[in-house]
Design brief:
Layout: E1 5-10, E2 19-24, E3 33-42, H1 45-51, E4 69-73, E5 79-83, E6 95-99, E7 103-105, H2 112-132, E8 141-144, H3 149-160, E9 166-170, H4 173-177, E10 186-189, H5 196-203, E11 209-212, H6 216-229, E12 237-241, H7 254-259, E13 262-266, H8 274-289, E14 297-301, H9 305-312, E15 318-322, H10 325-328
Parallel strand pairs: 8-9, 8-11, 9-10, 11-12, 12-13, 14-15
Antiparallel strand pairs: 1-2, 3-4, 3-6, 3-15, 4-5, 5-7
Helix pairs in contact: 2-3, 2-8, 5-6
Bound molecules: NADP nicotinamide-adenine-dinucleotide phosphate.
Amino acid sequence: MTGVIVKAAVVSSFGAAPRYAEFPAPAPAGDHDMILDVIAAGLHPRVRSQADGSHYTSTGELPLVPGIDGVGRGPDGLLRYFILPDTRVGAMAEQTVIDARRSIVLPAGSDPIAVAAAMNPAMSSWIALRQRVPFQPGQDVLVLGATGHAGRLAVQVARLLGAGQIIAAGRDATRLAALPALGATSTVPLGGDAGPARQLGQAAADVDVVLDYLWGQPAAEAMAAIVTGRADRGRPLTWIAIGSVAGPSAPVPSAALRAARLQIVGSGQGSVSAGEILAELPALADQISSGTFRIDARPMPLTEVEQAWAEASRTAQRIVLTPREAFGAGRRGPR
Ligand SMILES: NC(=O)c1ccc[n+]([C@@H]2O[C@H](COP(=O)([O-])OP(=O)(O)OC[C@H]3O[C@@H](n4cnc5c(N)ncnc54)[C@H](OP(=O)(O)O)[C@@H]3O)[C@@H](O)[C@H]2O)c1
């Protein structure tokens, strides 16, 4: 620590939301470390699980400052997007310490709010399709759990990368109905009495790739239905586990793996190397900065961190905390 005190979102108990409080500023330790003034940090699901101690990387140590990535400005005056390693001193503070090798300089004119909101959810499909599997333009994609931020961006990323059919399956009817405008060629409602698995077995039976944000029971049911409904079971089907909002484990039927040419892989930190992830950041940041994707971000000042935590579970917008007031003023809708 430097002896300098900064304002930060501070978690003192895993049972409560972070509070706006003082925290000792971290000190640079390695050759590539750089102190950054944080401008924007996204409140992603991964940040919520970090802050409540439920993420698998949690060491149980408190207090901690949450935040896994963000946008900030260093002593060189350049605007950077950065990803932090697992740390107790995260991005939701006036200042943080980054490893410059885990950051990229953003294009001139980049919107820090859009970048902080979208890089994490957009990366999930971008990296899966560009690094994890040999995706080819023209292949058909099912986005399972398409109504969250990552799912909505997955539809847009699949379109940008040249997917053929893009089938979007999701629970929230209103957000599902908005997905054709973003690139979905068809939609399948999940939940309720609509027989979602059966519908997927018809609408998505012949896809090449599944970008799965759900996992859990719905993924297992969808898998069985798609495999059963497939016209050609010898046609490769690559199922990419990206998120687990419906459950951390799934009862995958053995028959699904034996009866069709199905391979299940995961995509995320670890299954994709840090180098592969970093290599993709500039191109993705360019797309976000140039307005390719529709992003629904809502900046909130860091001073309102407790309110932001409450809002995060209610709003369809991705909340972005802004330690510097100039960026926290006002609210914005989708762009
Ligand atoms: N591996 C990676 O690289 C990576 C990167 C980013 C995110 N992720 C993961 O991707 C997942 C989604 O992230 P996100 O940023 O999109 O979160 P998000 O914006 O909070 O969206 C999650 C969505 O999941 C839907 N959902 C929740 N339970 C469901 C269920 N049982 N059945 C169907 N839909 C359900 C909800 O949609 P409805 O309102 O329609 O129910 C919600 O909007 C998380 O697990 C996250 O950790 C992975």
